[in-house]
Amino acid sequence: QKEVEQNSGPLSVPEGAIASLNCTYSDRGSQSFFWYRQYSGKSPELIMSIYSNGDKEDGRFTAQLNKASQYVSLLIRDSQPSDSATYLCAVNLGRYGNKLVFGAGTILRVKS
Amino acid sequence: DTEVTQTPKHLVMGMTNKKSLKCEQHMGHRAMYWYKQKAKKPPELMFVYSYEKLSINESVPSRFSPECPNSSLLNLHLHALQPEDSALYLCASSQDSREDGYTFGSGTRLTVV
Prior knowledge:
The complex is a heterodimer. Chain A is mainly beta. Chain A has strands at residues 4-6, 11-14, 19-25, 32-38, 45-50, 54-58, 61-66, 71-76, 85-92, 100-102, 106-111. In chain A, the strands form two sheets. In chain A, strands 2, 4, 5, 9, 10 and 11 form a six-stranded mixed beta sheet that branches. Chain A has a five-stranded antiparallel beta sheet with strand order 1-3-8-7-6, with no helix packed on it. In chain A, a hairpin with a 6-residue loop joins strand 4 and strand 5. The N and C termini of chain A lie far apart (37 Å). The relative contact order of chain A is 0.35. Chain B is mostly beta strands. In chain B, strand 5 (44-50) and strand 6 form a beta hairpin. The A-B interface holds A 31-32, 34, 36, 42-46, 49, 51, 88, 90, 92, 94, 96-105 and B 2, 31, 33, 41-45, 48, 50, 55-56, 88, 90, 94, 96-99, 101-107.
């Protein structure tokens, strides 16, 4: 079982729709979770972090965490073509102290 | 502009060459990291430095040699690389707590010929 799993996509949504990206992780000791956006040929950019069960909102982005189900998601409201990128879920694995492990990433395409 | 600066942005080297990648951060972060990213793959952790000491080495071949001269600088020395080592090499930094995400530099795109 991979430590962090994501559906590779691509996920295609029309402009203005809600994009829903999902991630599961294997280590129940994990305490912090992150979403990065990576445009083609660029480095990852941190867009959201979440540590507690429930929802966390920042502008058009909402991160959701369910530790019992070992599941974290990212919702992007009012999707724009500029949101088209690869979204990487990253988990700080509890047993290793501070070690960020990435999922394979989900490609999001927003069609205008 | 990123607050983690990597140089050079591009590097082409032969298999017998010795080169170094450099990374600098001015955010007062206490941990620095090297990641390797192949095309269409996620970043893979190579090394972690915490308080200038190597704390994690993910079984990286010895042809990659990290160095942390001080809390702001991180180098990756390269020697006798193979073509399969061609990738984007990313440096990152953080406050070294589990709640902090990493800030990445723009990367060095390395091609080994």
